[in-house]
Amino acid sequence: MISLKVGSLTDLSSRFRLKRAEPAKKEKAAPQRPARTRAAPSRFRPKLVLASASPRRLQLLEQAGITPDALRPASIDESVTKGEVPRHIVRRLARAKAEAARRLIKNEPELAKAFVLAADTVVAVGRRVLGKAELEHEAGDALRLLRGRAHRVHTAVCLLTPDDHPRERVVETRVRFRNLSNEEIGNYLASGEWKGKAGGYAIQGIAGAFVVKMVGSYTNVVGLPLTEVVSLLQSEGYPVSHLWLSKAEEVEIE
Hints:
The protein is α/β, with parallel strands linked by helices. The protein is 34% helix and 19% strand. The chain contains eight helices and seven strands, in the order αβαβαββαββαβααα. It has helices spanning 8-16, 55-63, 86-104, 136-146, 182-191, 218-222, 226-235, 240-253, and strands at residues 48-50, 70-71, 115-125, 128-130, 150-160, 166-177, 211-215. Strands 1, 2, 3, 4, 5, 6 and 7 form a seven-stranded mixed β-sheet that branches. A hairpin with a 5-residue loop joins strand 5 (150-160) and strand 6.
């Protein structure tokens, strides 16, 4: 029989330093980042009507992240009064287009309180105004006049607010063409790009190679000065920059 002296168990435990198992310490959980949220498109976003059938103007708006809710091109008399200066011409015609489009949507309940955006562009050499070229000889005459010299492109933008308050801007860009040969002009006319273009050319196409110098807004020459359009819309409460959030979502999906 093994006999243990009093206190022997105490000696053993102190000799081997027996320790009671301690519960494992919980690691601190990493702080969770709040879920990223995006502003949902507002159901109450005001609607926008573009008073134009121009694919160029529509493309420019979409480039700025703005998609019109409807297109309502208006047919108006675009004849020019003798002696009328270019700035007055484009301002008058842009306002007339916007007002005509407003009349078109008057009986459409979903568009009755929409913003209406209209624009008009002319090319001028001095006080001589070159409107849209509808016939080939008109475009040819315009290009022969413009070659080797400077001209000005005037665009007026008219925004009618939902309460029919007009907001307007007139933008001017100076453009200089190189001296085009008769052969170049003839071949450009054969391309058909001149049709329906102010001054008989489209700077976003082949005619971009004609430009020696440009001072001012490029998008103005195309047909819609984006800086001024965005400024007008945002100043009247149209949430242009909020529309850009949907572009970010599209990029992430891709």
